[in-house]
Structures are given as structure tokens and as C-alpha cells.
Amino acid sequence: MTAANIRKKFVAFFSDRQHQVVPSASLIPGNDPSVLLTTAGMQQFKPYLLGQADPLSAFGNRRLTSVQRCFRTSDIDSVGDATHLTFFEMLGNFSIGDYSKQGAIDLAWECLTKTFKLPKHKLWATVFSGDQAAGKDIQAIKLWQRHLPDQRISDFGRSDNWWGPPGTTGPCGPSSEIHYQRRDEACERGQHCRPNCACGRFVEIWNLVFMEYFQDEAGRCTELPTKNVDTGMGLERLAMVLQKVPTVFETDLFAPILDAAAAAGASPAEESDIERARRLRIVADHLKGAVFLLVDGVRFSNKDQGYVLRRVFRRALDQLPYPLAAYPPIVAAVVAVYAETYPFVQQQRQAINQEMQREAEGFVHLIETTMQRVTSGRHRDAVDQPMKRRLTADQVFQLRATHGISLERLRREGFEFDLAAVQKKIQEHRAISRAGAVAKFGGHGLGGYALDASKLSPEQAAQVTRLHTATHLLHQALRTVLGAHVRQQGSDINSERLRFDFSHPTMLSSEQIRQVEDLVNQQIQRDLRVSWKEVPLSEALESGALSFFRERYPDRVRVYSVGDFSKEICGGPHVEHTLEIGQFSITSEKSSAAGTRRIKAVVVA
What we know:
Layout: H1 3-15, E1 20-21, H2 46-49, H3 55-59, E2 63-71, E3 87-96, H4 101-115, E4 123-128, H5 138-145, E5 153-156, H6 158-161, E6 162-163, E7 170-181, E8 202-215, E9 221-234, H7 235-242, H8 255-264, H9 273-295, H10 304-318, H11 323-338, H12 343-347, H13 349-375, E10 389-390, H14 393-403, H15 407-412, E11 415-416, H16 419-441, H17 458-482, E12 488-493, E13 498-503, H18 510-525, E14 530-536, H19 537-542, E15 556-562, E16 566-569, E17 583-593, E18 596-604
Parallel strand pairs: 1-2, 4-5, 10-11
Antiparallel strand pairs: 2-3, 3-9, 4-7, 6-7, 7-8, 8-9, 12-13, 13-18, 14-15, 15-16, 17-18
Helix pairs in contact: 4-5, 8-9, 8-11, 9-10, 9-11, 10-13, 11-13, 14-16, 16-17, 17-18
């Protein structure tokens, strides 16, 4: 079954069952400032799922379905394996106050076994195993028992089978994943092998999220009067299963693109088949993602979405020995694959080519001139003429960190270097890179990318670190003075000041500002120890750690504690003791949006 037919059959199935078909939203989110790009099918429906807007007014229906274009950088390091991608399409159905758990499970089962005719004995389900906040999902187990034998129903904890809330409070609930058994033989775990085993025997194809609880500040869950359903199934993974191929890159969504990449991507003599396959998969995935970012209006830059576009495009070019000549046929293959489904891709082909050509020429020129400057030698024209040059760790690091030139390309270009020394240099620079991420994203990062980290000096990085730790103190101080309703809405830090947005309905009085400021400085003078530990996300949430960007958190997170004063999930750099922060001073307090206030503050060491 072709991918085009999969899309049509999925949409028709839910349309026939009274779901309103909603077109894919842009990759640039229109209503969710918490993320740079659209990462899930539910994103455009978030206001309705969270009860902030009425779906009847917008769509005339409480049942919705879509095929959503998505882009994620969280799995970028895994791209090249069997299933991980940056750009993908998410098939989804949504119930906003209509059917709940039984409807979601029965519809998914019918869709998979009748419409797509997947063999029933190959399907497994996982459910939530329960914890202190919410019990085991017995209802889901009973509903699945009507379709599956007990041995093919597994239960897992929060990190696998729970969604939300999107902040410390709000709608949340258990999820049920549907896995397809790709191979009959068990792995070394034998009969204990089950979904989520690392052996690759299973592939997750559909996730059903049941938003049926409300979590309060204390972490307690109570049942919602109106329950919602949010589901997502990766088109590429379903195509892989239905087309009976070993990876998503052998499906008709990728095979022509990969063929074009193989024809254009000459291999170094020492490259193994596995290395070549991974390199070409990265090229195919990243160029596809770049095409769709461009058609949705993203342009190459060093900021926000433009930075993501530049990074994936350059990373694709970096895999190709002759990038200027190699990438256009691959892009043409991407356009051909999606021309019928998304006509705007074909319509914008000329603009795509122009933007990519400028960026590619700039990148190649950068490689040539930078290598000449760093090595003080003439850059050769052909990569197949060996020219051994010895680079220092500093030179390699500069090429990699500042200009995006990979270690693999340097090797292909005939350069030699001490790999261990380079890796040590990378480790030494991580503190500054984390500081750069904090400066842009308040410590939550974007799939591993740290923006503008190279522009921070060690002194600036140290100041950002002090300001970031002060933000933790400010956050807790606001909750202490104003109340537990205070929630972080955004954070921006540079080497001069911190900016902190938080939920609060009214302007702060001068007395409240003084109280907050004094409380922060009191904690600084206590010289509290700042400590952290890495734990599963579920454990972090259960411990009461503040968390306001759930959709960005990985399965394991760092929980930072500032003495006995604050505890928060975070990924940014921190001082070791609060006395290092210096004197804290609030410089302004004003409205940022309806129900949101903004504080700016500085610290003086």
C-alpha cells in the first residue's frame, strides 16, 4: 500500500465516523509560543484540548482528524537508524469531549485490522502501570482484553505511558501505545521480550492519549468532568509495516530520495556499508526537512527556526563530498515524492532552489576559506587527491563549532588530528554551550542545539550562569509572595540581565516587588548549595519539582535543588553556591500579555 493510499484510507476511515477533516497546520506554530516548530499532530488543537477554546465554534465538531506535518530535533542524533526522522507526518484523531477511552481503542483496532488489514496476532498494546498520583489503567486493560490476549498487553510507568500536564497543573492522563511485532523470533530475553525492548523486534506505531485527569499543585490527580482523546500514528512507520520493509527509508516516502542520494553521494574508500547507509539516510531526511521548512516560510538565519533550517541543511551538505553538485537531484526527488500530496511544494520549487543555492554556495565558500585560513595553506579542488595535513585540536574545534564542518568531512578532505584531544576540547566547551542554550531558551534547550554559544566569552557565560540560578530563586520567591498560581511563561537571559514572564492577573505593588527582591537576596546570603541529580521524568514529577515545558523533556531529566528553597527540572548551568550570584535587583515589572507579568532583573557579583 502506497503512502498516498495510507493517508487517504486513514482520513476516509475517520471521516466516515463523523470526524471533521482538518488540514495540516504550518511547521511554524501559530498558537504555541512554547516551541519553535510543530512537533505533534495535537499542537494545532492544543487550545481546544486544554479547554481554552470551543471546537464547535472553530470546526463545528468535537471529533477531528488530520495528517499533520511535524518536525522534531529531539531525535536528530538517532536519524539514520530504522525509524527516527526529523521531518515526518502524523496521522491523528481527536475527541474533545466526545468519545473517550473505549471509543479511541475500538476505533484504532478497527482501523488497523480492517482498513489496513494488519494481522491481529502481530499487534500488542501497552497501558499505564499506575503510581501514587493515578492508579493502574484497569479500564484500558479490560478494553484491550476484548481484542488481545493477556500476554500481549503490557504495562509501563509514566515515562512510557503518561502524558502531561503541560505545566505543573492541568489536564493529563494515561496513554496506550500500539506496537507491531516485526519478527516472530524472540530476542535473548526470550518470553520476557515485549514492547519497548531494545532488540528491535517491535515498533511503536500508534499512541492513544486519554486526557481524563486534572493534576493540581500538589501532584494530585482528580477526574475531569470532560475527557479528551489525542492520538498520533507516524505515517512513515505505518508505511514501513504495511510495505514490509526493514526501515522507513525503504518505503516509497524515501526510496526515490535515497536512490538520488546514493547516486550523488560518492563514498570514501574506507567507508563501510553501514557508515554509508547512515550518511545517506541523514542526507535524505535532512534535505526533505529543509524543503518543508522552506515551503512553510522559514528562511536560513542564525535565529530560531532559521537556525534549525541552517543546521539540518548544512549537516546534509556536510555528508556529501561534492555538495554543490550533489544536493539538487536529491531535492528534486523530494519534490517529486510530495508533488501530488502537497502541490505547494512543486509550486515553490523555484524559490526553494534559489534559497538553497545561496546557502549551499555560502557554506562551500565558508569551508574553503576557513580551511585555508586555519591551515594557512591552499585548499585543493578534488577530494580524491590525498593531501595529508595535521590540524591541532583548537583548529578542528574551530572548524566544527563555529562553521559546522564535521570531523568526518575533515577526514575525507585528507586532514589528520588527535581525536581524543578534540573530544576533550568539546567537553571543555560544553559549559559555555549550555549557557548559550539558557540565554535563548531558559535552560530547556532545543533538541541538543545551543544557539549563539560561540558568541559568549567565558566571562559572559559565567554571568549567564549566575543570572540563570537567580531565575530559580526568583521563580520560587514569586510563588512564595504571590501564591502557587504563579507559573513560568517564558524566560530570556543574556549576559546583562534576566527576563522572566509568569502568570499573575495584576500588577505587583512596590511592597510585593520589595518582598520578592528581599527573599531572593536572603537565599543568596544563606550561601545555599546548588545540587542536581538525574532521574526518570516520572520520578522528577512525583518529587514535586517545578516543570513548565513538559513537551521538551526527555525520559531522563536533571532536577536542580537550591538548598531547601527551590527544586526545578532544568537543563541549564548553575553556580555551586548561591553566594556566587551576587546582589539581586529587580529593574522593572510590567505586563507582557493578558494574565502574564514580566520582570527584568540584574545581578552584581
